[in-house]
Amino acid sequence: MAGLFDTLGTATRGLAVVQSGIATTGHNIANADTPGYSRQRSVVEASLAQMTGAGAIGTGAEQISVDRVIDRFVAQRLVRETSRQATLDTEASIYRQMESVVSASDGNGLAGDLTSFFDALHDLSNASDPGQAAARTQLLSAGQSLVDSIRRTDSQLRQLQRAADQGISGLLVEVNSISQEIATLNKKIAIAEVTAPANDLRDQRDQLVLSLAEKVDITLVTDNQGMLSVRISGGLPLVDKDIAAELEAVVDPANPNAFDPRFSQVFYNGAGSFFDATSLIRGGELGGLIEARDGTLAGAIRELDAFAYSLADSFNQVHRGGLGLADGNAHDFFADLSGQASVDDSARNFALSIDIDPSQGGSLLNIAAGAGPNPVTGGPGAASGDTAWVEQLKVLRTGNVATYLAGDVPGTPTGTSTSAVSALGRFIGDIGQGARTAERSLAQQESVLSAVKDRRDEVSGVSIDEEVAELVKLQASFQANAKVLSTISKMLDELFAAL
Amino acid sequence: MRITQTMLARMSMQQLTNQRGRLARTQEQAATGLRVNRPSDDPVDYRSALRLKDSVSQTGRYLRSIDLSKTRLHATEDAIADAAEVVGQAQALAVQAGNSTNGATARAALRVQVEQYFDQILDASNARASGGGYVFSGVASDTVAFVQTGTFVSGSPPPTVAFAGDDSAVSVEIDEGVSIEVTRSGQGAFQGPVDVFAVLGQLWQGLDQPDSSASRALIRTAMGDLTVAFDHLNVERAHIGGAEAKADSFELRLRSQEQELATQVSVLEDADAYQVYSDLAAQEAALQASLEVTARMQQPTLLDFL
């Protein structure tokens, strides 16, 4: 049979349980807006009953633990979708910038300059003044503008590539610091959890894992001590218990994908090994930047090189068939292209070196407008009014010529036969298509991620309404327990008075 | 389903961001009047529009070719018309010269007249186009077409004129693969069936010699040859007229083609104004509503009622 003092103890413990419940609720309310915070719940059980001859008499409640309310499956999805989101976000942002580089809506872009160039050619064929000095000057300057425009596009694409490269090096520093923090937290959690679940430390760690997932694609394994192992895309351990590996940016001149030998490769340094892991990294912002630098941007630069080569080469070929005013020699209009191993030879940075043939700069007379030697003087140069060969050059505007693809060897074009304007249209259109696809994938991913975040908040988020209701309930509970206490106290008083 | 404050906040922020994004896009369309503002708006249409815009520009250049061709045709025609008129006057003079009642003074006066005709035709045959090139020199436009040797000196043979230019007509492309000749061959026009200069020389010689059956024969032959030259020059003019007519018909065709292409570009690129403005109004209203709802939704919690 339980005595009054036992019941007094029950009421006191009840008050303690209620108080810790209020503490937990207060903690929840205080952290309602803390990023990554998971609501906590005080777990209460009826304490062990006192067995008497009359039966089991209850001894009140006791608090077992304070738990985090989380859904492991949602947490894992959140990590995965955050990585995907970061990759797609990077991709879309790179495409947006590429798009604005290659297209100018005011007509002063690549396409506008190509049109102006052929228009100038047209004007040369119309010129009726002997020697066509004005029209030749105009053609030369339109050609120069076209070359400048190609160069500008090329150098802007390269700037984007360099920015991506710098982004990669910068990200590695962040990745290393985050993985170091995770390793440290692992240790703290293992120590703390000898006694009780380290809810807030775990929340902190989950939050770090999410920021790591933004940077790189990761998979997670938790051991029985509560330590979290993080592996990056290829299964490389980035954090193993309380030891963090490092990713280092190493300048790699041998990188076949890089146009610029100063680009960095991502080296894995951990578990006693040190090797190039660039190709293993796929997801997150890091994967997105690597893909942009070595894939999307490198591809676009190569395509631009091949376009510039095709244009200059086909134009030069026809140009050499005509005659200038000064002599009977065959002249190039664009810079001499012979001697390149491939049309996008990285060593020669073709689009950067495309240039109006110096022989054109030296003398306007070398523009091959004439079809044959001067019939009156017998040559060797063409007659001053002869612009018949310009018609042959003009054909290149809409006429199909064999085009080069990136990687082709000069002399053997493997591209489809198309006109310069169509080829440029395809180059710009492909980037536009890429941008569109990236934008759409990103929009879809955003709604996927937002659904996962909603699911996480549904489970782990703090609802003020709920917490306030809980508070009201606990308050009542506190009053009730206090009432029991005061009742017992009165009874004891009466008892003592009777003595 | 548990609804938490962060969820509500995120949902409404996302809604607002999406709506603002859509509104910004519609506003851009309204401001530029274009549906395709960048390649990614519609890659396929962007590509087609790019090609079509180049075609528009090209068509514009062909129209310019036609304009300039016409100027050159006019220069050619003016020169030939001038020459034909002078030849016509020479014909009348030859009829008068054939009249045996002319005295020595009258014959001398007629002779001087012929000398002037000769000079006028030489001027016409060495006509220059607006750019400064010799019209009848073919592609050698900086070479004087007709060169005179000798002068008119009584008792001596008349001067001769030799063709020094390029004996070809200059062609200009007025549409893809279509060319017209904007000049005529100089030699063909002025020294074709008969050498106009030689005929005038003959007439002059007939007048320079004292009246005799020989001199009358010279004048008579010259008279016949002048008729041939006159007819020939008119045929040359007709050729030019033909080229001009061809240029005119292509001009009409190119103008409608230019318009057609511009329409196609507009169909591909342009925004439908009514659609854009009604979208704009609808999206603005939706944004307004969202803002109001968000403002109301964010406020109350259970605390407000305790």
Structural overview:
The complex is a heterodimer of chains A (499) and B (306). Chain A has 499 residues and is of the alpha+beta class. Chain A contains eleven helices and 13 strands. In chain A, the strands form five sheets. A four-stranded antiparallel β-sheet of chain A has the order 5-6-7-8. Chain A has a three-stranded antiparallel β-sheet with strand order 9-10-11, with helices on one face. The longest helix of chain A is centred in the N-terminal third of the chain and has 60 residues, at 133-192. Chain A is rod-shaped, with a radius of gyration of 38 Å. In chain A, 43% of the residues are buried. The longest helix of chain B has 57 residues, at 213-269. With 306 residues, chain B is mainly alpha-helical. In chain B, helix 2 (43-98) packs antiparallel against helix 3 (104-125), helix 3 (104-125) packs antiparallel against helix 5 and helix 5 runs antiparallel to helix 6 (213-269). The chains are: A alpha+beta (499), B mainly alpha (306). Chains A and B meet through helix 2, helix 3, helix 9, helix 10 and helix 11 of A and helix 1, helix 2 and strand 3 of B.
Count of helical stretches of chain A: 11
Strand order of the largest sheet of chain B: 1-2
**Kindly state the mean pLDDT of chain A as a whole number?**
86
Q: Specify the biggest β-sheet of chain A.
A: 4 strands, antiparallel
Strand order of the largest sheet of chain A: 5-6-7-8
Determine the fraction of residues in helical runs of chain B and give it as a percent range.
55-70%
H/E series of chain B: HHHEEEEHHHH
Give the overall shape of chain A: rod-shaped
Q: Hey, which two chains have the biggest interface?
A: A-B, 66 and 64 residues
Outline of chain B: rod-shaped
What is the radius of gyration of chain A?
38 Å
Range of strand content of chain B = 5-15%
Which characteristics define this entry?
heterodimer; A: 499 residues; alpha+beta; 4-stranded antiparallel sheet; 3-stranded antiparallel sheet; B: mainly alpha
